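Dear colleague,

As promised, here are the two records you asked about, laid out in our usual form so they can be pasted straight into your sheet.

NAME FIELD: protein one
SEQUENCE, THEN STRUCTURE:
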Amino acid sequence: MDVVTVRPTESDRYAALARTTGIIGIAFMVLLFGPIIALASAEEPALEASAAEAVNYFRNLEATWAQLTMAALTLGMIGSLWFFVAFGFLLRRAEGDPPWRSAIATLSGALLAAYGLVGASSVGAASLHGGRIIPEVADFAYAFGNVGFANAWIALGSFALCSGWVILSTRVLERWMGWWIVVAGLALVVARFVWTTGFWGVGYALFWLWLLVVCIRLIVRPDRWGSAAR
């Protein structure tokens, strides 16, 4: 009796990629925001903190739990790279040729990992011996990390605008999903110019909430992306 091997179609492979991308997205957000919330509990000051506040913060982080937390944060940053590359392939399938918007979205998302790893390194190095850090070094390390954090908003804004553009032009998702991420991207770009104010939280919250919704939908409705070719 002959055995018939059923090979998955291209749509099946992209549907599997969509589901995997959604799982990766939720996992990396947990690994990212879990450590961020934990580190913030160590009396993290505002973005534009004084040298004395930075010294106190790094002293509070001179603990084994803080170093382990920052290691988990590094995993979250690398996980974000996995997500943005995988999501870029899904956008590429929806966009068709030439896939320039999806390529820019992928590269822009990857910059989150780059900025995040550099910023986390400055915080990790300053907190490693936080009890002996001098105010000048603490001031620089904290400002360096926060400026990198603010610059990442531009990268996320670029990802948001390109992703929204693809969604709006291809209807791979509903139009309101496209406009949602476009508004979030514009808010993130504007926030970089007033980065010490609380306005940055608007676009930031809109962005991550949108990403969470997209990840859930990738898991629940992967077939939508599997049949998204133009």
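NAME FIELD: protein two
SEQUENCE, THEN STRUCTURE:
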Amino acid sequence: MLSPDSSRLTVAEYLERERRSEGKSEFLNGEIFAMTGASRPHNLISLNVGAELRVQLKQRPCEVYVSDMRVKVSVTGLYTYPDVVVACGEPTFEDAEVDTLLNPVLLVEVLSRTTADYDRGEKFEHYRRLPSLREYLLVAQHRRQVMQYVRQADNAWLLTETGESGDSLYLPSLDCHLLLAEVYAKVQFADQGALR
């Protein structure tokens, strides 16, 4: 997580503040964590993934949200904004505001330099507690690399990594495919070295 705000809030106070705010913040255990703006590659990748999924899911009972759909992990109390969220069947929301989703099937985070460790570690620990979640994608923005976690029947998570431009990633939770060439369309890499 990024920098916490110094005051502790209740969930109701957080939601009231968040719904009036122009920015976005994560919330956990009474603390607000301001989210920073995203880079050009981050925005391109998020929209590319969301658009590809929307096309494939257009005739199915699934909804794709990019960037602004708040997700709550009820068991841990985390409120957060994944980069791409997919809900299938009847989406369940926390309240009548219909802005906090409780039952995502797939979550996608585009890794930035400041959040990569958090997205891979602590945030994924929270996400794994979502009973509805079947798949989690971590997409690097400084090189072609996608880490795919798929929930298994025994509740373990299977990791697959891919990074070649011509690769196709099968998403069993949605019965969809993502071509890496489409995920990274119009994204230019400064170097092909490790994610920094």
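A couple of things worth noting about protein two: The mean pLDDT is 92. The longest helix spans residues 40-57.

Best,
R.
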